[in-house]
Every structure is written in structure tokens, then in C-alpha cells.
């Protein structure tokens, strides 16, 4: 997830897709298999924990206009238990049913403007997603399973035919059929039925190192293929009873070594409706040298274009590749060496509101607008950064996102994905920017 290579500037010509005037020259790609949406897709991650400190509620997607512009909303995250089942329960740090479906919202914070009651079976974020979808019928909600911190037990769950079958069945039962654990009036059989339209697999990473406690094995590669096939099989079987296609997607890495260690690309792409490519964290604030985290092009370094090429060359259809775009920046402080600050030694991750080294776009925009930092661009590389002589932040602003959206259209790719929606401005500036760029 966090590759470490020295930065190099792009030297090859990339001018053809850097001009927004080219947007109209490319027709949208054909519809992806079974998905029901014409590409390009607009996929946004909603974080379960964002409803607390950030106070970012599902209703905020209505207020900003983002809900009307998205095709998919990925709810992050669902977890897998040590016994290989989709986990939902009062297990601190491993599950949060209070945020998911138990927490009552008042009228002011509800999508439909009606307060939750003590007797309804579904409350919390899941009920708000249901209300949001009712107002935006084209919007699909996907449950994202895993993530960096909750991929711990995926290798175990995928290890045998029996464990795969049990794991997938538990996830379909919990999230697609909506059979939630009962807790007082909340939950019960079918309580969340209809909330989710599919499953997004965020196993980080099959066959290679992820978080410190995440298990991985060489056989994960073939087991991941089998797991994907089992998800497709069970989703299709249940879908036939509902006359509905349930979508299946995944978050997949940029590093060729991680792709080759964990993914039989041609095989899995037959079962996926689409995959979301890692388009960020090419470099992170824990490194000792400042660098780009999400460049469109970069020579001898990770980049969006390099990621797309890696997947295309391994047999992935362009129309199923969705490009990840960050709604945050990576930052360093104690930067020395002068110049524009990029590629220079740094002492530590830069302070920010929620976590050192990680700042939401709206926070970065405020700093840029205040004149505290100078804005720099690598116009050929397709990335931007802020630098004040000591602290540097690399991030995507609207100009960068327009360039990347032009690239998506030029390559006939499947769309754009955003991590994460709570980093955008209250008026949804970044979602609006990408939506407009992909629509023309």
C-alpha cells in the first residue's frame, strides 16, 4: 500500500490529455457488465467513523449535492472475524454497530428530515443510506469489506473451499439480505434489506504485506481468485431470487509486485463489475524525503498512468478500471534543502487537524486560500503541492482532478473513485469538479 521509491519528473510528452478541450473528443465507454450504469462511474467512500469527530453525516452528501453526482457510495468498512465470518457486534475496535444501524438521528441530521424513533428496527448510517437512495434512485450503495486495518483475517477466510463459502454466505446474509444482530428494537431479520446493492472487497493485500497484524500467504493469489468467484456465485444466486444484479468490486494496488503476488488478473476481472485502482499513497508522510503521493505521470516512480498500464498489460479491460483520486494530502515538516521543497529531506509528518501527515482537502484549501503556502505544480506530471519553506503538502486540487478526469475519458476507463467524501468542502467542490469533467 505504501511503496517507497525516489521521485522522478515526467519527461515524456503528456500534453495530449492535459488540455480540457479534449474532453469532448471522447465518447463515454460502454456499460460495464451487469452494472446498469454507463461509465464513467463516480465512486465515493463514506467512512463509518466520520460521523463522530468530523461530524460528517450521510445527510451532508445531500446538502453538498454529491449524492446526486455519485453512481456508487462505498461504505467503509465491514470486518472479518477470526473465525472467518463477516463481523457485526459490540467488539471495540473491530465493529461499530452503533454507527452502522443503532444510533438514532434527529430530524436536523436525517436525510428525510424525520427523527428516528426508539422502536424502528433500522437507524444509524444504514437507515440514512436507505433514505439517501430513496431520493437518488440511480445511486448504488456498496459495503466495503476490509481496508488497511480490517484485512487481518482475510487470508484465513479465503484458505479453503469451505471457509470461502462460509465467509461469503455470512457477508451476503448480513449486508445483502440485511439480517442484523438484534439489540433491543434494532436489528433483526431483513432489517437492512435493500440498503446495499453489492460488495466491495478491500483486502490489503493478498499474497503480500499489509498492516502489521494482517496475515498473508503465497497461496493467497489463487485463493483470492476462488474467493471472488464465490462472491460472484452467491451474489448471482441471491440476485436471481430478487430479479436484481448485485455488483462486485475491489480496491486493488498500484505496485506491480503486489499485483503479481496477489491477483490473477484475467480470471478475477471476469467476475468483477469493476475495480478501484489505488491512485494515491505513492509516497507517504512517514518517509524521510518529501515526494508526490498521487501524480498522474512520473518517470521511474509510481503514478496513476503506471498503475493503469500495469493492470491493462495484465489483461484487465479498460472499462472496468476506476481511477482512485485522493480528497486529502500527505504532509512533511522540517523540510530542508530549499527550492520548491519536493524531493528534500524532512524531519517528521506535518501537524494537521485529524492526524499528523494527513490533511483533508478542505483543510488544505483553507491554507492555500489564506496565502500561508505557495502553490506549486508539475504540469506534465499532473500533481500539485503546497510549501511554505518548512512544511510541504502534496495533494490533488480541482485543476489536477480535471486533468485526471480527462485522462479517464481519453483512455476509455471505468471512472473515478474518491477517498474519502468527508475530505471534500461542504459544497462538494471536488465531486462536482470530477462529475463535470467526466460528463463533457
From TrEMBL:
Belongs to the glycosyl hydrolase 18 family. It comes from the Bacteria. Keywords: Carbohydrate metabolism, Chitin degradation, Glycosidase, Hydrolase, Polysaccharide degradation, Signal. This is chitinase. Coiled coil: none annotated. Residues 1-32 form the signal peptide. InterPro entries: Chitinase_II/V-like_cat (IPR011583), Chitinase_insertion_sf (IPR029070), GH (IPR017853), Glyco_hydro18_cat (IPR001223), Glyco_hydro_18_chit_AS (IPR001579), Glycosyl_Hydrlase_18 (IPR050314), TAT_signal (IPR006311). It catalyses: Random endo-hydrolysis of N-acetyl-beta-D-glucosaminide (1->4)-beta-linkages in chitin and chitodextrins. One of its GO terms (molecular function) is hydrolase activity. It comes from Streptomyces kunmingensis. It is an enzyme of class 3 (hydrolase). Its EC number is 3.2.1.14. Residues 40-440 form the GH18 domain. Pfam families: Glyco_hydro_18.
Amino acid at each position: 500500500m505504501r511503496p517507497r521509491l525516489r521521485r522522478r519528473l515526467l519527461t515524456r510528452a503528456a500534453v495530449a490529455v492535459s488540455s480540457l478541450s479534449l474532453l469532448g473528443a471522447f465518447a463515454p465507454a460502454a456499460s460495464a457488465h451487469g452494472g446498469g450504469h454507463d461509465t464513467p462511474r463516480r465512486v465515493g467512500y463514506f467512512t463509518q467513523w466520520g460521523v463522530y469527530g468530523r461530524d460528517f453525516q450521510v445527510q451532508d452528501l445531500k446538502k453538498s449535492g454529491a449524492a446526486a453526482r455519485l453512481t456508487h457510495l462505498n461504505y467503509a468498512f465491514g470486518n472479518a472475524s477470526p473465525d472467518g465470518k463477516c463481523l457485526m457486534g459490540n467488539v471495540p475496535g473491530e465493529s461499530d454497530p452503533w454507527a452502522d444501524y443503532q444510533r438514532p438521528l434527529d430530524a436536523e441530521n436525517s436525510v428525510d428530515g424525520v427523527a428516528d424513533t426508539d422502536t424502528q428496527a433500522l437507524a444509524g448510517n444504514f437507515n440514512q443510506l436507505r433514505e439517501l437512495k430513496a431520493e437518488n434512485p440511480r445511486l448504488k450503495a456498496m459495503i466495503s469489506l476490509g481496508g488497511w486495518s480490517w484485512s487481518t483475517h482475510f487470508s484465513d477466510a479465503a484458505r479453503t473451499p469451505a471457509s470461502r463459502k462460509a465467509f461469503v454466505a455470512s457477508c451476503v446474509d448480513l449486508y445483502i439480505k440485511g439480517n442484523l444482530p438484534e439489540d433491543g428494537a434494532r436489528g433483526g431479520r431483513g432489517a437492512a434489506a435493500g440498503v446495499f446493492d453489492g460488495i466491495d472487497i478491500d483486502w490489503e493485500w493478498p499474497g503480500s504485506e499489509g498492516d502489521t497484524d494482517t496475515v498473508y500467504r503465497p497461496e493467497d493469489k489463487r485463493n483470492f481468485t476462488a474467493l471472488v468467484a464465490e462472491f460472484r456465485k452467491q451474489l448471482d444466486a441471491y440476485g436471481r431470487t430478487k430479479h436484481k444484479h448485485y455488483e462486485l468490486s475491489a480496491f486493488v494496488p498500484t505496485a506491480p509486485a503486489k499485483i503479481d503476488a496477489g491477483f490473477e488478473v484475467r480470471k478475477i476481472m471476469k467476475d468483477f463489475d469493476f475495480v478501484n485502482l489505488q491512485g494515491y499513497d505513492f509516497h507517504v508522510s512517514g518517509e524521510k524525503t518529501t515526494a508526490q503521493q498521487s501524480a498522474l505521470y512520473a518517470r521511474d516512480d509510481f503514478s496513476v498512468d503506471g498503475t493503469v498500464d500495469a493492470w491493462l498489460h495484465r489483461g484487465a479491460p479498460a472499462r472496468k478500471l476506476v481511477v482512485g483520486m485522493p480528497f486529502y494530502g500527505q504532509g512533511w515538516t522540517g523540510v530542508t534543502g530549499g527550492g520548491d521543497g519536493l524531493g528534500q529531506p524532512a524531519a517528521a509528518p506535518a501537524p494537521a487537524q485529524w492526524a499528523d501527515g494527513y490533511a483533508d482537502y478542505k483543510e488544505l484549501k483553507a491554507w492555500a486560500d489564506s496565502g500561508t503556502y505557495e502553490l506549486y505544480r508539475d504540469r506534465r506530471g499532473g500533481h500539485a503541492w503546497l510549501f511554505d519553506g518548512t512544511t510541504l503538502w502534496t495533494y490533488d486540487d480541482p485543476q489536477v482532478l480535471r486533468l485526471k478526469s480527462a485522462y479517464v475519458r481519453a483512455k476509455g476507463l471505468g471512472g473515478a473513485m474518491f477517498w474519502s467524501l468527508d475530505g471534500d468542502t461542504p459544497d462538494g467542490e471536488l465531486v462536482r469538479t470530477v462529475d463535470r469533467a467526466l460528463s463533457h
